[in-house]
Amino acid sequence: MIKLYNHELSGNGYKVQLMLSLLGLEYELVRIDLMKGEHRSPEFLQLNPFGQIPVLQDGDILLQDAQAILVYLARRYGNEDWLPLDAEPMSRVMRWLSTATGEIRQGVESGRLDHLFNVQSINIETATNKSNFLLKMFEQHLAENNWLTLERPTIADVACFPYIALAPDGKIYLEAYTNVRAWIERIKQLLGFVGMGGIG
Predict the structure, then answer these.
(1) Cis peptide before 54 (omega within 30 of 0)
(2) pLDDT tens sequence across 76-126
(3) Is 194 contained in some domain?
(4) Residue 154 has pLDDT above 80, yes or no
(5) What does the alpha-carbon distance between residue 62 and residue 28 come to, in Å, rounded to a whole number?
(6) 82 lies in a domain?
(7) From CA 2, how far away is CA 162, in angstroms rounded?
(8) Which of 67, 120, 135, 153 is the 20 to 30 A CA-CA neighbour of 81?
(9) Residues near 199 by Cβ (< 8 Å), separated by ≥ 6?
(10) pLDDT by residue (tens digit) across 65-87?
(11) Using CA atoms, how far apart are residues 43 and 117, in angstroms rounded to an integer?
(12) Residue 175 DSSP class
Protein backbone atom coordinates (compact mmCIF):
# COMPACT_ATOMS: atom_id res chain seq x y z
CA MET A 1 0.00 0.00 0.00
CA ILE A 2 1.24 3.48 -0.89
CA LYS A 3 1.50 5.93 2.01
CA LEU A 4 1.49 9.69 1.53
CA TYR A 5 2.71 11.88 4.39
CA ASN A 6 1.03 15.24 3.93
CA HIS A 7 -0.87 18.19 5.39
CA GLU A 8 -4.14 19.39 3.92
CA LEU A 9 -2.89 22.96 3.33
CA SER A 10 0.23 21.92 1.42
CA GLY A 11 0.13 22.70 -2.28
CA ASN A 12 3.12 20.46 -2.86
CA GLY A 13 1.43 17.60 -1.04
CA TYR A 14 -1.76 18.24 -2.97
CA LYS A 15 -0.06 17.85 -6.34
CA VAL A 16 0.97 14.33 -5.30
CA GLN A 17 -2.57 13.55 -4.11
CA LEU A 18 -3.87 14.83 -7.43
CA MET A 19 -1.47 12.62 -9.39
CA LEU A 20 -2.37 9.57 -7.32
CA SER A 21 -6.04 10.23 -8.05
CA LEU A 22 -5.50 10.87 -11.78
CA LEU A 23 -3.73 7.51 -11.95
CA GLY A 24 -6.53 5.80 -9.99
CA LEU A 25 -4.17 4.61 -7.26
CA GLU A 26 -5.27 3.74 -3.74
CA TYR A 27 -3.16 5.11 -0.91
CA GLU A 28 -3.11 5.73 2.81
CA LEU A 29 -2.91 9.37 3.86
CA VAL A 30 -0.78 10.05 6.92
CA ARG A 31 -1.41 13.55 8.26
CA ILE A 32 1.61 15.52 9.42
CA ASP A 33 0.52 18.50 11.52
CA LEU A 34 2.74 21.33 10.34
CA MET A 35 1.22 23.74 12.84
CA LYS A 36 2.36 21.53 15.71
CA GLY A 37 5.80 21.04 14.19
CA GLU A 38 5.40 17.33 13.51
CA HIS A 39 7.54 17.74 10.38
CA ARG A 40 10.48 18.50 12.71
CA SER A 41 9.94 15.48 14.95
CA PRO A 42 12.71 12.85 15.12
CA GLU A 43 10.31 10.29 13.65
CA PHE A 44 9.50 12.38 10.59
CA LEU A 45 13.11 13.46 10.08
CA GLN A 46 13.90 9.78 9.63
CA LEU A 47 11.62 9.93 6.57
CA ASN A 48 12.91 13.27 5.30
CA PRO A 49 15.94 14.91 6.95
CA PHE A 50 14.88 18.23 5.37
CA GLY A 51 11.68 18.15 7.43
CA GLN A 52 9.49 18.79 4.39
CA ILE A 53 6.32 17.26 3.04
CA PRO A 54 5.26 15.42 1.00
CA VAL A 55 6.91 12.07 1.53
CA LEU A 56 5.74 9.01 -0.37
CA GLN A 57 6.34 5.43 0.74
CA ASP A 58 5.66 2.69 -1.77
CA GLY A 59 6.66 -0.63 -0.23
CA ASP A 60 10.39 -0.40 0.42
CA ILE A 61 10.74 2.77 -1.66
CA LEU A 62 10.83 6.08 0.21
CA LEU A 63 10.68 9.30 -1.79
CA GLN A 64 10.85 12.98 -0.91
CA ASP A 65 10.15 16.12 -2.98
CA ALA A 66 6.88 16.61 -4.84
CA GLN A 67 8.41 16.87 -8.32
CA ALA A 68 10.52 13.74 -7.82
CA ILE A 69 7.44 11.88 -6.61
CA LEU A 70 5.47 12.97 -9.69
CA VAL A 71 8.23 11.56 -11.92
CA TYR A 72 8.20 8.29 -9.98
CA LEU A 73 4.42 7.90 -10.11
CA ALA A 74 4.26 8.75 -13.81
CA ARG A 75 6.97 6.24 -14.73
CA ARG A 76 5.92 3.42 -12.41
CA TYR A 77 2.15 3.62 -12.66
CA GLY A 78 1.36 5.85 -15.62
CA ASN A 79 2.36 5.74 -19.24
CA GLU A 80 4.30 7.95 -21.58
CA ASP A 81 1.37 10.33 -21.83
CA TRP A 82 2.25 11.73 -18.40
CA LEU A 83 6.04 11.65 -18.87
CA PRO A 84 7.50 10.70 -22.25
CA LEU A 85 10.82 8.88 -22.44
CA ASP A 86 12.18 10.49 -25.61
CA ALA A 87 14.77 13.12 -24.82
CA GLU A 88 13.20 16.18 -26.44
CA PRO A 89 9.63 15.88 -25.09
CA MET A 90 10.94 14.76 -21.69
CA SER A 91 13.09 17.89 -21.54
CA ARG A 92 10.01 20.03 -22.22
CA VAL A 93 8.21 18.47 -19.26
CA MET A 94 11.27 18.87 -17.04
CA ARG A 95 11.48 22.55 -17.90
CA TRP A 96 8.08 23.07 -16.25
CA LEU A 97 9.05 21.00 -13.20
CA SER A 98 11.92 23.44 -12.80
CA THR A 99 9.46 26.32 -13.11
CA ALA A 100 7.44 24.79 -10.27
CA THR A 101 10.47 24.74 -7.97
CA GLY A 102 11.84 28.08 -9.16
CA GLU A 103 9.60 30.88 -10.37
CA ILE A 104 6.38 29.49 -8.90
CA ARG A 105 8.00 28.94 -5.52
CA GLN A 106 9.52 32.42 -5.50
CA GLY A 107 6.25 34.01 -6.60
CA VAL A 108 2.75 32.72 -5.90
CA GLU A 109 3.85 30.02 -3.45
CA SER A 110 5.80 32.57 -1.39
CA GLY A 111 2.89 34.99 -1.47
CA ARG A 112 0.61 32.28 -0.10
CA LEU A 113 3.11 31.39 2.63
CA ASP A 114 3.26 35.03 3.69
CA HIS A 115 -0.49 35.67 3.83
CA LEU A 116 -1.71 32.25 4.96
CA PHE A 117 1.11 31.14 7.26
CA ASN A 118 2.74 34.48 8.17
CA VAL A 119 6.22 33.27 7.24
CA GLN A 120 8.45 36.13 8.35
CA SER A 121 11.38 35.52 5.99
CA ILE A 122 9.41 36.33 2.81
CA ASN A 123 9.72 39.67 1.03
CA ILE A 124 6.10 40.06 -0.06
CA GLU A 125 6.85 42.86 -2.54
CA THR A 126 9.36 40.68 -4.35
CA ALA A 127 6.99 37.71 -4.27
CA THR A 128 4.13 39.81 -5.67
CA ASN A 129 6.30 41.19 -8.48
CA LYS A 130 7.52 37.71 -9.38
CA SER A 131 3.93 36.43 -9.29
CA ASN A 132 2.70 39.09 -11.70
CA PHE A 133 5.57 38.41 -14.10
CA LEU A 134 4.94 34.66 -13.91
CA LEU A 135 1.20 34.95 -14.49
CA LYS A 136 1.71 37.20 -17.53
CA MET A 137 4.09 34.61 -18.97
CA PHE A 138 1.59 31.80 -18.30
CA GLU A 139 -1.20 33.88 -19.83
CA GLN A 140 0.77 34.41 -23.03
CA HIS A 141 1.86 30.79 -23.25
CA LEU A 142 -1.67 29.47 -22.65
CA ALA A 143 -3.09 31.79 -25.30
CA GLU A 144 -1.69 29.35 -27.87
CA ASN A 145 -1.62 26.12 -25.84
CA ASN A 146 -4.31 24.21 -23.96
CA TRP A 147 -1.63 22.51 -21.84
CA LEU A 148 1.82 23.55 -20.74
CA THR A 149 3.55 21.24 -23.18
CA LEU A 150 3.05 18.36 -25.64
CA GLU A 151 -0.58 19.33 -26.37
CA ARG A 152 -1.89 17.07 -23.60
CA PRO A 153 -1.89 17.04 -19.80
CA THR A 154 1.41 15.83 -18.32
CA ILE A 155 3.06 16.01 -14.93
CA ALA A 156 4.15 19.50 -16.04
CA ASP A 157 0.56 20.66 -15.56
CA VAL A 158 0.17 18.74 -12.30
CA ALA A 159 3.37 20.27 -10.90
CA CYS A 160 2.47 23.87 -11.75
CA PHE A 161 -1.28 23.78 -11.19
CA PRO A 162 -1.70 23.93 -7.39
CA TYR A 163 0.07 27.17 -6.53
CA ILE A 164 -1.22 28.94 -9.64
CA ALA A 165 -4.78 27.98 -8.69
CA LEU A 166 -4.09 28.93 -5.05
CA ALA A 167 -2.62 32.33 -5.94
CA PRO A 168 -5.62 34.21 -4.43
CA ASP A 169 -4.59 32.82 -1.01
CA GLY A 170 -1.58 35.14 -1.35
CA LYS A 171 -3.72 38.05 -2.55
CA ILE A 172 -2.58 37.47 -6.13
CA TYR A 173 -5.83 37.49 -8.09
CA LEU A 174 -6.51 35.76 -11.38
CA GLU A 175 -9.40 37.76 -12.84
CA ALA A 176 -7.18 39.41 -15.47
CA TYR A 177 -5.75 36.08 -16.64
CA THR A 178 -8.44 34.54 -18.83
CA ASN A 179 -6.24 31.86 -20.35
CA VAL A 180 -4.82 30.84 -16.98
CA ARG A 181 -8.33 30.46 -15.56
CA ALA A 182 -9.39 28.40 -18.59
CA TRP A 183 -6.37 26.09 -18.06
CA ILE A 184 -7.33 25.68 -14.39
CA GLU A 185 -10.83 24.65 -15.46
CA ARG A 186 -9.46 22.16 -17.99
CA ILE A 187 -7.45 20.49 -15.25
CA LYS A 188 -10.55 20.34 -13.04
CA GLN A 189 -12.32 18.43 -15.81
CA LEU A 190 -9.71 15.65 -15.97
CA LEU A 191 -10.95 12.19 -15.05
CA GLY A 192 -9.92 11.54 -11.46
CA PHE A 193 -9.49 15.19 -10.48
CA VAL A 194 -9.70 15.92 -6.75
CA GLY A 195 -9.62 19.33 -5.10
CA MET A 196 -8.28 20.75 -1.87
CA GLY A 197 -9.13 23.74 0.29
CA GLY A 198 -9.06 26.75 -2.02
CA ILE A 199 -9.46 24.62 -5.14
CA GLY A 200 -12.99 23.36 -5.71
Answers:
(1) yes
(2) 999 899 999 999 999 999 999 999 999 999 999 898 988 777 777 888 899
(3) no
(4) yes
(5) 14
(6) no
(7) 22
(8) 135
(9) 14, 162, 165, 166, 188
(10) 999 999 999 999 998 999 999 99
(11) 24
(12) T
CATH code for the domain of 157: 1.20.1050.10
Q: Which residues contact 27 (CB under 8 A, 6 or more apart)?
A: 1, 2, 3, 4, 20
Has residue 130 been placed in a domain? yes
pTM of the model: 0.95
pLDDT tens by residue, 32-77: 998 888 898 999 999 999 999 999 999 999 999 999 999 999 999 9
Q: Is 176 helix (H, G, I), strand (E, B) or coil?
A: coil
Count of Cβ atoms closer than 10 Å to residue 125 Cβ: 8
Q: Are residues 51 and 143 in the same domain?
A: no
DSSP state, residue 107: I
Residue 182: predicted pLDDT: 98
